[in-house]
Amino acid sequence: MEKYDIIIVGGGAAGFFTAINTAENNPQLKILILERGKEVLTKVKVSGGGRCNVTHAEFIPSELVKRYPRGEKELRGPFHKFMTGDTIAWFEERGIELKTEEDGRMFPVTDSSQTIIDCFQKERKRLNIEILKGHSLKNFKKEGEYWKVQTSKADFECRKLMLATGSNVKVWNLLEKMGHNIVPAVPSLFTFNIQDPRIKGLAGISTDAEVTVEREKLESSGPLLITHWGMSGPSILKLSAWGARELNKLDYRFKISVNWLPGKSAAELLEELKQLKFSLSKQQVAKRSQFDLPRRLWQSIIKASGIAEEIKWADLNKEQLKKLSEELTAAVFRVNGKSTFKEEFVTAGGIDLKEIDFKTFESRIHKDLYFAGEILNIDAITGGFNFQNAWTGAFLAARAMS
């Protein structure tokens, strides 16, 4: 049975980042990464549409934690020790320059996730970190000073064990048998399936909107993207993250109210529409979009308000103006299911955060057992925040283990 100082189970972002930083801190350590699949860093490869959304340009810890529906309180301390600026510096020291996009997301300037993968692999080889693929974790237990680790192919021993296996139910089950409390997993980032004539044929249109889940205290604002299957975009994804558990209880069948004109109420808008009735009296209502709304969306809303294409502003009656104001500020849509957001499947759930020492990311129940990444009950909205959680946890765990 081969002995190691440290074994890291999981050949993903958190696993590699832990191994590299641990070896940097103490080159004498014998480190092994065990990966159950045939390839490593597969989630890094597909993240950000193949560009790898490394982090987000938010540099204030108290603001950064607000992007985590689960983990906000617990990450405040860790982010004061390693966060966005440290991540940028870490990659720059290894020749990887990051760029910031308008929405704050940060990517390698190459726009390729392979750049990050190559960086990790180069560092792993330089630091003589061993890796074994096709090793699915079967069991692990502490005997004296050593952890006995059993995989589908071999048995190993190590002084310190790190689990960075993401939302792997088998590993969660093993941890549960060892006394850890596991919060059941539910999807966290997903889009809304909506079949409605008002958005049919409008796929690809994006505009700012306020979205509220009816009968739930859930609301968000930001760009809303109409898709072939319903609605997506930051405003919807934020709702899906913050409402992960509530929407799961509703079996993803609920109603949302969409305000296509953020900040405006139906009453305020009605007064504006009355003014347009006079100022644009001779124009056809459907011909020219108002309030900077995309033209096709405007025309769809006009139709939904019971206003014929040829009707002029002067000919609108009170009921039509009222209906139009409601369709623009409080359009109700029925959600009937969800779809995964691209290839990035993020879950809410994992190891109960009360059982983790967030100074070191070590288990409070088992000494010399560490965690990083999505194995914990931490998740974030889309935009590089889930990776930042992985980098921070991995860095602090690496410092503790080395």
Description:
This protein is α+β, with helices and mostly antiparallel strands. It has two domains: 2-186 and 343-401, FAD/NAD(P)-binding domain (3-Layer(bba) Sandwich), CATH 3.50.50.60; 190-340, no CATH class. The protein is 34% helix and 26% strand. The chain has 13 helices and 21 strands. The chain has helices at 13-25, 42-50, 61-64, 72-81, 84-93, 113-126, 169-177, 234-242, 244-249, 266-279, 295-304, 318-329, 385-401; strands at residues 2-9, 31-35, 55-56, 98-100, 105-108, 130-133, 137-143, 146-151, 155-163, 182-187, 190-193, 206-213, 218-226, 230-232, 253-259, 331-336, 338-340, 347-351, 356-357, 362-363, 369-371. Strands 1, 2, 6, 7, 8, 9 and 21 form a seven-stranded mixed sheet that branches. The chain has a seven-stranded antiparallel sheet with strand order 16-15-12-13-14-11-17. Strand 13 and strand 14 form a beta hairpin. Helix 10 (266-279) packs across helix 12. The chain is elongated and about 85 Å long. 44% of the residues are buried. The mean pLDDT is 96.
What structural keywords apply?
alpha+beta, 402 residues, 7-stranded antiparallel β-sheet, FAD/NAD(P)-binding domain
